Amino acid sequence: MAPLLFKVEDRPPRITTVLLALQHLLAALGGIIAVPLVIGGALKLPTAEIIALVNAALIGSGVVTIIQCKGVGPVGIRLPCVMGTSFSFVGAAISVGAEHGVAGILGSALAGSLLMIVGSHFMPTIRKLFPHTVTSVVVTMIGLSLIPVAVDWAAGGRGSPQYGAVGNLAIAAFVLALVIAMVQWGKGMISASAIVIGILGGYLLCLALGLVDFTQMRNAPVLALPQPLHFGLSFPVSGIVAMAIAYLVTTVESTGTFMALGSATQTPITGNKLSRGILCDGFGSAFAALISSPPLSTFAQNVGVVSLTGVASRHVVALTGVMLLLAGLFPVLGALVVTVPQPVLGGAGLMMFAMIVSGGINMLSRIEFTQRNTLIVAVSIGCGLAVTFRPELLSRLPLFVQEVFGSGISVGSLVAVTLNLVLPGRTAEHAEEAQHDEGAQASGELA
Q1: Which chain regions cross the lipid bilayer (predicted)?
Q2: Is the pLDDT of residue 426 over 70?
Protein backbone atom coordinates (compact mmCIF):
# COMPACT_ATOMS: atom_id res chain seq x y z
CA MET A 1 0.00 0.00 0.00
CA ALA A 2 1.37 3.46 -0.96
CA PRO A 3 2.54 5.67 1.92
CA LEU A 4 0.24 8.51 2.97
CA LEU A 5 1.31 12.09 2.34
CA PHE A 6 -0.39 13.18 5.58
CA LYS A 7 -1.48 10.66 8.22
CA VAL A 8 -4.61 10.86 10.36
CA GLU A 9 -3.01 12.92 13.15
CA ASP A 10 -0.84 15.13 10.91
CA ARG A 11 -1.53 18.85 10.68
CA PRO A 12 -0.53 20.24 7.25
CA PRO A 13 0.44 23.93 6.94
CA ARG A 14 -2.55 26.31 7.02
CA ILE A 15 -2.71 27.25 3.35
CA THR A 16 -2.23 23.60 2.42
CA THR A 17 -5.01 22.61 4.82
CA VAL A 18 -7.41 25.10 3.25
CA LEU A 19 -6.76 23.76 -0.26
CA LEU A 20 -7.11 20.16 0.85
CA ALA A 21 -10.31 20.91 2.80
CA LEU A 22 -11.75 22.63 -0.27
CA GLN A 23 -11.40 19.38 -2.22
CA HIS A 24 -13.62 17.58 0.26
CA LEU A 25 -16.12 20.46 0.16
CA LEU A 26 -16.35 20.28 -3.64
CA ALA A 27 -16.89 16.51 -3.49
CA ALA A 28 -19.65 16.72 -0.88
CA LEU A 29 -21.56 19.96 -1.37
CA GLY A 30 -23.69 18.87 -4.32
CA GLY A 31 -24.88 15.74 -2.53
CA ILE A 32 -25.70 17.64 0.66
CA ILE A 33 -27.79 20.22 -1.17
CA ALA A 34 -29.49 17.68 -3.45
CA VAL A 35 -31.42 15.86 -0.69
CA PRO A 36 -33.35 18.87 0.71
CA LEU A 37 -33.97 20.07 -2.86
CA VAL A 38 -35.46 16.70 -3.84
CA ILE A 39 -37.59 16.48 -0.69
CA GLY A 40 -38.74 20.09 -0.98
CA GLY A 41 -39.55 19.70 -4.67
CA ALA A 42 -41.49 16.47 -4.14
CA LEU A 43 -43.56 18.08 -1.35
CA LYS A 44 -44.03 21.28 -3.42
CA LEU A 45 -42.72 23.49 -0.62
CA PRO A 46 -42.42 27.26 -1.14
CA THR A 47 -38.98 28.45 -2.22
CA ALA A 48 -38.31 30.05 1.17
CA GLU A 49 -38.99 26.75 2.95
CA ILE A 50 -36.68 24.82 0.60
CA ILE A 51 -33.94 27.39 1.23
CA ALA A 52 -34.44 26.92 4.98
CA LEU A 53 -34.01 23.13 4.55
CA VAL A 54 -30.85 23.58 2.47
CA ASN A 55 -29.26 26.04 4.91
CA ALA A 56 -30.09 23.79 7.87
CA ALA A 57 -28.59 20.78 6.05
CA LEU A 58 -25.33 22.66 5.45
CA ILE A 59 -25.12 23.89 9.05
CA GLY A 60 -25.91 20.44 10.45
CA SER A 61 -23.43 18.76 8.11
CA GLY A 62 -20.71 21.23 9.10
CA VAL A 63 -21.19 20.88 12.86
CA VAL A 64 -21.42 17.08 12.82
CA THR A 65 -18.45 16.76 10.44
CA ILE A 66 -16.32 18.66 12.97
CA ILE A 67 -17.52 16.37 15.80
CA GLN A 68 -16.95 13.20 13.74
CA CYS A 69 -13.39 14.29 12.92
CA LYS A 70 -12.35 15.82 16.23
CA GLY A 71 -14.41 13.72 18.64
CA VAL A 72 -16.33 14.80 21.72
CA GLY A 73 -15.96 12.20 24.48
CA PRO A 74 -17.32 8.88 23.15
CA VAL A 75 -18.87 10.56 20.09
CA GLY A 76 -16.96 10.72 16.79
CA ILE A 77 -14.69 8.21 15.06
CA ARG A 78 -11.81 10.74 14.81
CA LEU A 79 -11.10 9.97 11.16
CA PRO A 80 -11.48 12.22 8.08
CA CYS A 81 -15.26 11.79 7.68
CA VAL A 82 -17.54 14.24 5.90
CA MET A 83 -21.13 14.12 7.11
CA GLY A 84 -24.08 15.05 4.93
CA THR A 85 -27.73 14.45 4.15
CA SER A 86 -28.34 10.92 2.88
CA PHE A 87 -30.46 9.72 -0.04
CA SER A 88 -31.22 6.63 2.05
CA PHE A 89 -33.84 8.75 3.83
CA VAL A 90 -35.41 10.39 0.77
CA GLY A 91 -38.04 7.73 0.07
CA ALA A 92 -39.18 7.60 3.69
CA ALA A 93 -39.08 11.39 4.01
CA ILE A 94 -41.27 11.98 0.96
CA SER A 95 -43.84 9.35 2.00
CA VAL A 96 -44.01 10.74 5.55
CA GLY A 97 -44.01 14.35 4.38
CA ALA A 98 -46.87 13.80 1.93
CA GLU A 99 -49.15 12.93 4.86
CA HIS A 100 -47.64 14.71 7.85
CA GLY A 101 -45.62 17.57 6.38
CA VAL A 102 -42.04 18.53 7.16
CA ALA A 103 -42.83 18.45 10.89
CA GLY A 104 -43.62 14.74 10.54
CA ILE A 105 -40.35 14.12 8.68
CA LEU A 106 -38.23 15.86 11.31
CA GLY A 107 -40.08 14.36 14.29
CA SER A 108 -39.84 10.86 12.83
CA ALA A 109 -36.14 11.41 12.10
CA LEU A 110 -35.56 12.56 15.67
CA ALA A 111 -37.34 9.54 17.16
CA GLY A 112 -35.77 7.11 14.68
CA SER A 113 -32.27 8.34 15.47
CA LEU A 114 -32.61 6.62 18.86
CA LEU A 115 -32.32 3.30 17.00
CA MET A 116 -28.88 4.31 15.71
CA ILE A 117 -27.80 5.75 19.06
CA VAL A 118 -28.76 2.57 20.92
CA GLY A 119 -27.46 0.33 18.13
CA SER A 120 -24.03 1.99 18.29
CA HIS A 121 -23.37 0.16 21.57
CA PHE A 122 -23.60 -3.18 19.75
CA MET A 123 -21.02 -2.30 17.09
CA PRO A 124 -18.19 -4.36 18.71
CA THR A 125 -20.39 -7.41 18.17
CA ILE A 126 -21.44 -6.31 14.68
CA ARG A 127 -17.76 -5.72 13.79
CA LYS A 128 -17.21 -9.48 14.12
CA LEU A 129 -19.57 -9.95 11.17
CA PHE A 130 -17.09 -8.10 8.95
CA PRO A 131 -13.95 -10.23 8.50
CA HIS A 132 -11.51 -9.26 5.75
CA THR A 133 -13.42 -11.05 2.98
CA VAL A 134 -16.68 -9.28 3.81
CA THR A 135 -14.97 -5.91 4.31
CA SER A 136 -13.25 -6.21 0.92
CA VAL A 137 -16.59 -6.82 -0.77
CA VAL A 138 -18.20 -3.85 1.01
CA VAL A 139 -15.39 -1.45 0.07
CA THR A 140 -15.50 -2.61 -3.56
CA MET A 141 -19.30 -2.23 -3.67
CA ILE A 142 -19.10 1.32 -2.29
CA GLY A 143 -16.87 2.32 -5.19
CA LEU A 144 -18.89 0.46 -7.81
CA SER A 145 -22.15 1.96 -6.52
CA LEU A 146 -20.75 5.49 -6.80
CA ILE A 147 -19.45 5.14 -10.37
CA PRO A 148 -22.94 5.70 -11.93
CA VAL A 149 -23.19 8.95 -9.92
CA ALA A 150 -19.96 10.23 -11.49
CA VAL A 151 -21.13 9.09 -14.94
CA ASP A 152 -24.39 11.05 -14.55
CA TRP A 153 -22.42 14.13 -13.51
CA ALA A 154 -20.06 13.76 -16.47
CA ALA A 155 -23.00 13.46 -18.86
CA GLY A 156 -24.55 16.70 -17.58
CA GLY A 157 -26.85 15.50 -14.80
CA ARG A 158 -29.66 12.96 -14.87
CA GLY A 159 -32.77 14.45 -16.47
CA SER A 160 -30.85 17.19 -18.27
CA PRO A 161 -31.90 17.74 -21.92
CA GLN A 162 -28.16 17.90 -22.69
CA TYR A 163 -27.43 14.55 -21.03
CA GLY A 164 -24.60 12.82 -22.85
CA ALA A 165 -23.83 15.80 -25.09
CA VAL A 166 -20.35 15.67 -26.63
CA GLY A 167 -19.45 18.97 -24.97
CA ASN A 168 -20.27 17.62 -21.51
CA LEU A 169 -18.22 14.47 -22.06
CA ALA A 170 -15.32 16.50 -23.45
CA ILE A 171 -15.24 18.75 -20.36
CA ALA A 172 -15.37 15.73 -18.05
CA ALA A 173 -12.57 14.06 -20.01
CA PHE A 174 -10.47 17.25 -19.78
CA VAL A 175 -10.87 17.37 -16.00
CA LEU A 176 -10.13 13.64 -15.68
CA ALA A 177 -6.95 14.02 -17.77
CA LEU A 178 -5.87 17.02 -15.68
CA VAL A 179 -6.38 15.14 -12.41
CA ILE A 180 -4.46 12.13 -13.74
CA ALA A 181 -1.58 14.39 -14.83
CA MET A 182 -1.43 16.11 -11.43
CA VAL A 183 -1.43 12.82 -9.54
CA GLN A 184 1.07 11.11 -11.81
CA TRP A 185 3.59 13.88 -12.44
CA GLY A 186 2.87 16.42 -9.71
CA LYS A 187 4.98 16.46 -6.57
CA GLY A 188 3.98 17.08 -2.96
CA MET A 189 1.14 19.58 -2.72
CA ILE A 190 0.51 19.58 -6.48
CA SER A 191 -0.30 15.88 -6.35
CA ALA A 192 -2.28 16.21 -3.10
CA SER A 193 -4.35 19.07 -4.57
CA ALA A 194 -5.02 17.22 -7.84
CA ILE A 195 -8.81 17.29 -7.42
CA VAL A 196 -9.13 21.01 -6.70
CA ILE A 197 -6.66 21.80 -9.52
CA GLY A 198 -8.64 19.63 -11.94
CA ILE A 199 -11.96 21.19 -10.92
CA LEU A 200 -10.49 24.70 -11.10
CA GLY A 201 -9.13 23.97 -14.60
CA GLY A 202 -12.51 22.64 -15.74
CA TYR A 203 -14.31 25.60 -14.15
CA LEU A 204 -12.09 28.12 -15.96
CA LEU A 205 -12.71 26.27 -19.24
CA CYS A 206 -16.47 26.44 -18.66
CA LEU A 207 -16.20 30.14 -17.80
CA ALA A 208 -14.39 30.77 -21.08
CA LEU A 209 -17.11 28.85 -22.94
CA GLY A 210 -19.91 30.72 -21.15
CA LEU A 211 -21.24 27.56 -19.49
CA VAL A 212 -21.31 28.77 -15.87
CA ASP A 213 -24.74 29.84 -14.58
CA PHE A 214 -24.57 32.44 -11.78
CA THR A 215 -28.36 32.66 -11.31
CA GLN A 216 -28.37 30.79 -7.97
CA MET A 217 -25.55 32.95 -6.65
CA ARG A 218 -27.35 36.18 -7.55
CA ASN A 219 -30.53 34.95 -5.87
CA ALA A 220 -28.86 33.57 -2.74
CA PRO A 221 -29.12 35.62 0.48
CA VAL A 222 -25.84 36.81 1.94
CA LEU A 223 -26.67 35.72 5.53
CA ALA A 224 -29.01 33.04 6.86
CA LEU A 225 -29.26 32.41 10.59
CA PRO A 226 -30.16 28.92 11.90
CA GLN A 227 -33.88 28.31 12.41
CA PRO A 228 -34.27 25.60 15.09
CA LEU A 229 -37.71 23.93 15.07
CA HIS A 230 -38.71 26.16 12.15
CA PHE A 231 -41.11 23.53 10.84
CA GLY A 232 -42.08 22.14 14.24
CA LEU A 233 -42.06 18.45 15.18
CA SER A 234 -44.69 15.73 15.06
CA PHE A 235 -44.29 12.03 15.75
CA PRO A 236 -46.54 9.83 13.57
CA VAL A 237 -46.00 6.14 14.34
CA SER A 238 -45.94 5.18 10.66
CA GLY A 239 -43.30 7.84 10.04
CA ILE A 240 -41.12 6.65 12.91
CA VAL A 241 -41.25 3.07 11.59
CA ALA A 242 -40.32 4.23 8.07
CA MET A 243 -37.41 6.29 9.36
CA ALA A 244 -36.24 3.46 11.63
CA ILE A 245 -35.94 1.21 8.57
CA ALA A 246 -33.94 3.93 6.79
CA TYR A 247 -31.65 4.20 9.82
CA LEU A 248 -31.02 0.44 9.71
CA VAL A 249 -29.95 0.73 6.07
CA THR A 250 -27.78 3.75 6.88
CA THR A 251 -26.08 1.89 9.72
CA VAL A 252 -25.02 -0.84 7.29
CA GLU A 253 -23.80 1.72 4.74
CA SER A 254 -21.94 3.81 7.33
CA THR A 255 -20.25 0.67 8.67
CA GLY A 256 -19.03 -0.10 5.17
CA THR A 257 -17.87 3.49 4.68
CA PHE A 258 -15.90 3.38 7.93
CA MET A 259 -14.28 0.14 6.78
CA ALA A 260 -13.36 1.75 3.46
CA LEU A 261 -11.99 4.77 5.29
CA GLY A 262 -9.93 2.52 7.53
CA SER A 263 -8.35 1.00 4.43
CA ALA A 264 -7.73 4.41 2.83
CA THR A 265 -6.20 5.90 6.00
CA GLN A 266 -4.34 2.71 6.98
CA THR A 267 -6.19 2.68 10.31
CA PRO A 268 -7.53 -0.51 11.96
CA ILE A 269 -11.30 -0.16 12.48
CA THR A 270 -12.15 -1.78 15.79
CA GLY A 271 -15.60 -2.33 17.24
CA ASN A 272 -15.10 0.62 19.59
CA LYS A 273 -14.21 2.91 16.70
CA LEU A 274 -17.35 1.82 14.88
CA SER A 275 -19.38 2.55 18.02
CA ARG A 276 -18.06 6.10 18.19
CA GLY A 277 -18.70 6.68 14.49
CA ILE A 278 -22.25 5.28 14.46
CA LEU A 279 -23.04 7.13 17.71
CA CYS A 280 -22.01 10.37 15.99
CA ASP A 281 -24.23 9.50 13.01
CA GLY A 282 -27.17 8.99 15.40
CA PHE A 283 -26.61 12.08 17.54
CA GLY A 284 -25.87 14.06 14.39
CA SER A 285 -29.21 13.13 12.86
CA ALA A 286 -31.00 14.04 16.09
CA PHE A 287 -29.24 17.42 16.11
CA ALA A 288 -30.10 17.88 12.42
CA ALA A 289 -33.81 17.31 13.11
CA LEU A 290 -33.78 19.95 15.85
CA ILE A 291 -32.28 22.57 13.52
CA SER A 292 -34.74 21.66 10.71
CA SER A 293 -32.43 19.50 8.56
CA PRO A 294 -33.03 16.04 7.05
CA PRO A 295 -31.04 13.19 8.70
CA LEU A 296 -27.28 12.90 8.20
CA SER A 297 -24.86 10.06 7.49
CA THR A 298 -21.19 9.57 6.63
CA PHE A 299 -20.40 10.38 2.98
CA ALA A 300 -18.74 7.55 1.08
CA GLN A 301 -17.60 9.71 -1.83
CA ASN A 302 -15.06 11.55 0.28
CA VAL A 303 -13.21 8.29 0.90
CA GLY A 304 -12.21 8.61 -2.73
CA VAL A 305 -10.58 11.98 -2.05
CA VAL A 306 -8.46 10.39 0.69
CA SER A 307 -7.56 7.42 -1.51
CA LEU A 308 -6.58 9.60 -4.45
CA THR A 309 -4.61 12.31 -2.65
CA GLY A 310 -3.02 10.32 0.17
CA VAL A 311 -4.18 13.01 2.63
CA ALA A 312 -5.72 11.25 5.64
CA SER A 313 -5.53 14.13 8.14
CA ARG A 314 -8.73 14.40 10.17
CA HIS A 315 -7.86 18.03 10.87
CA VAL A 316 -8.16 18.82 7.15
CA VAL A 317 -11.68 17.42 7.01
CA ALA A 318 -12.61 19.18 10.25
CA LEU A 319 -11.89 22.42 8.36
CA THR A 320 -14.23 21.15 5.62
CA GLY A 321 -16.86 21.04 8.38
CA VAL A 322 -16.15 24.70 9.14
CA MET A 323 -16.54 25.51 5.42
CA LEU A 324 -19.90 23.69 5.32
CA LEU A 325 -21.02 25.62 8.39
CA LEU A 326 -20.06 28.92 6.73
CA ALA A 327 -21.85 27.86 3.54
CA GLY A 328 -25.00 27.39 5.63
CA LEU A 329 -24.62 30.71 7.44
CA PHE A 330 -23.63 32.57 4.25
CA PRO A 331 -25.60 30.89 1.44
CA VAL A 332 -23.93 33.05 -1.19
CA LEU A 333 -20.70 31.09 -0.56
CA GLY A 334 -22.41 27.76 -1.05
CA ALA A 335 -24.15 29.10 -4.16
CA LEU A 336 -20.74 30.00 -5.62
CA VAL A 337 -19.53 26.42 -5.22
CA VAL A 338 -22.78 25.12 -6.74
CA THR A 339 -22.02 27.07 -9.93
CA VAL A 340 -19.41 24.40 -10.77
CA PRO A 341 -20.93 22.60 -13.81
CA GLN A 342 -21.76 18.93 -13.29
CA PRO A 343 -19.44 17.65 -16.07
CA VAL A 344 -16.53 19.24 -14.19
CA LEU A 345 -17.51 17.35 -11.04
CA GLY A 346 -18.03 14.21 -13.13
CA GLY A 347 -14.46 14.17 -14.42
CA ALA A 348 -13.05 14.47 -10.90
CA GLY A 349 -15.70 12.19 -9.39
CA LEU A 350 -14.97 9.35 -11.79
CA MET A 351 -11.36 9.36 -10.62
CA MET A 352 -12.28 9.62 -6.92
CA PHE A 353 -14.84 6.83 -6.96
CA ALA A 354 -12.67 4.58 -9.12
CA MET A 355 -9.97 4.94 -6.47
CA ILE A 356 -12.36 3.38 -3.94
CA VAL A 357 -12.87 0.48 -6.35
CA SER A 358 -9.09 0.21 -6.67
CA GLY A 359 -8.77 0.08 -2.87
CA GLY A 360 -11.37 -2.68 -2.74
CA ILE A 361 -9.57 -4.67 -5.44
CA ASN A 362 -6.33 -4.27 -3.48
CA MET A 363 -8.08 -5.72 -0.43
CA LEU A 364 -9.60 -8.54 -2.50
CA SER A 365 -6.12 -9.43 -3.78
CA ARG A 366 -5.13 -10.37 -0.23
CA ILE A 367 -7.95 -12.91 0.10
CA GLU A 368 -7.24 -16.60 -0.25
CA PHE A 369 -9.70 -17.46 -3.01
CA THR A 370 -11.03 -20.74 -1.73
CA GLN A 371 -14.34 -21.96 -3.13
CA ARG A 372 -16.08 -20.45 -0.09
CA ASN A 373 -14.51 -17.01 -0.42
CA THR A 374 -15.04 -17.00 -4.19
CA LEU A 375 -18.75 -17.60 -3.65
CA ILE A 376 -18.99 -14.79 -1.09
CA VAL A 377 -17.25 -12.29 -3.35
CA ALA A 378 -19.02 -13.27 -6.57
CA VAL A 379 -22.57 -13.55 -5.26
CA SER A 380 -22.50 -10.46 -3.03
CA ILE A 381 -20.99 -8.18 -5.68
CA GLY A 382 -23.33 -9.62 -8.31
CA CYS A 383 -26.41 -8.98 -6.16
CA GLY A 384 -25.19 -5.50 -5.22
CA LEU A 385 -24.62 -4.55 -8.85
CA ALA A 386 -28.02 -5.94 -9.83
CA VAL A 387 -29.72 -3.37 -7.61
CA THR A 388 -27.27 -0.60 -8.54
CA PHE A 389 -27.76 -0.95 -12.29
CA ARG A 390 -31.40 -2.04 -12.31
CA PRO A 391 -33.16 -0.45 -9.29
CA GLU A 392 -36.53 -1.10 -10.95
CA LEU A 393 -35.88 -4.77 -10.13
CA LEU A 394 -37.54 -4.16 -6.75
CA SER A 395 -40.45 -2.02 -7.97
CA ARG A 396 -43.10 -4.73 -7.45
CA LEU A 397 -41.93 -5.72 -3.98
CA PRO A 398 -43.32 -4.31 -0.69
CA LEU A 399 -42.12 -0.84 0.32
CA PHE A 400 -40.27 -2.29 3.32
CA VAL A 401 -38.20 -4.52 1.03
CA GLN A 402 -37.49 -1.61 -1.30
CA GLU A 403 -36.26 0.53 1.61
CA VAL A 404 -33.90 -2.16 2.94
CA PHE A 405 -32.60 -3.46 -0.37
CA GLY A 406 -32.76 -0.30 -2.46
CA SER A 407 -29.03 0.37 -2.15
CA GLY A 408 -26.37 -1.72 -3.85
CA ILE A 409 -24.07 -1.11 -0.88
CA SER A 410 -26.58 -2.47 1.63
CA VAL A 411 -27.48 -5.44 -0.60
CA GLY A 412 -23.84 -6.37 -1.22
CA SER A 413 -23.04 -5.97 2.48
CA LEU A 414 -26.00 -8.01 3.73
CA VAL A 415 -25.44 -10.81 1.21
CA ALA A 416 -21.72 -10.97 2.08
CA VAL A 417 -22.44 -11.05 5.82
CA THR A 418 -25.14 -13.71 5.38
CA LEU A 419 -23.00 -15.96 3.19
CA ASN A 420 -20.08 -15.60 5.59
CA LEU A 421 -22.32 -16.81 8.42
CA VAL A 422 -24.04 -19.59 6.46
CA LEU A 423 -21.27 -21.16 4.40
CA PRO A 424 -19.06 -23.64 6.29
CA GLY A 425 -15.42 -22.86 7.01
CA ARG A 426 -15.55 -19.40 8.61
CA THR A 427 -13.97 -20.39 11.94
CA ALA A 428 -10.33 -19.87 11.00
CA GLU A 429 -10.79 -16.48 9.39
CA HIS A 430 -13.12 -15.34 12.17
CA ALA A 431 -10.54 -16.25 14.82
CA GLU A 432 -7.78 -14.48 12.91
CA GLU A 433 -9.92 -11.35 12.54
CA ALA A 434 -10.87 -11.37 16.22
CA GLN A 435 -7.22 -11.66 17.23
CA HIS A 436 -6.30 -8.81 14.88
CA ASP A 437 -9.17 -6.67 16.19
CA GLU A 438 -8.13 -7.22 19.82
CA GLY A 439 -4.53 -6.34 19.00
CA ALA A 440 -5.57 -3.18 17.17
CA GLN A 441 -7.83 -2.18 20.04
CA ALA A 442 -5.08 -2.73 22.60
CA SER A 443 -2.60 -0.68 20.59
CA GLY A 444 -5.19 2.09 20.28
CA GLU A 445 -5.73 2.13 24.02
CA LEU A 446 -1.97 2.31 24.62
CA ALA A 447 -1.74 5.24 22.20
Answers
A1: 50-67, 79-96, 102-122, 129-151, 163-183, 190-211, 231-249, 316-338, 344-363, 375-393, 405-423
A2: no
